[in-house]
Amino acid sequence: MTDALDLAALGGSLDVRARESGMSGVVSIDADGVQVFSSAYGLADRAHGIPNDVGTMFAMASASKAFTALAAMSLIGDSVIALDTPVRDILGADLPLVDDAVTVEHLLTHTSGIGDYLDEEADWEVEDYVLTVPVHELAQTEAFVRAVDGQPQKSPPGERFAYNNGGYIVLAIALERVSGMPFHDVVAQRVLTPAGLTRTGFLRLDELPGDAAIGYLADDPQSLRTNVLHLPVRGNGDGGAFSDAAGLSRFWRALADGLVLPDEVIAEMWRPRVFVESERLRYGMGFWLDAEGPGIVLEGYDAGVSIRTRFDPETRATVTIVSNSSEGAWDVIRTFVEHLARP
Question: According to its UniProt record, what is one Pfam family this protein matches (predicted)?
Answer without folding.
Answer: Beta-lactamase
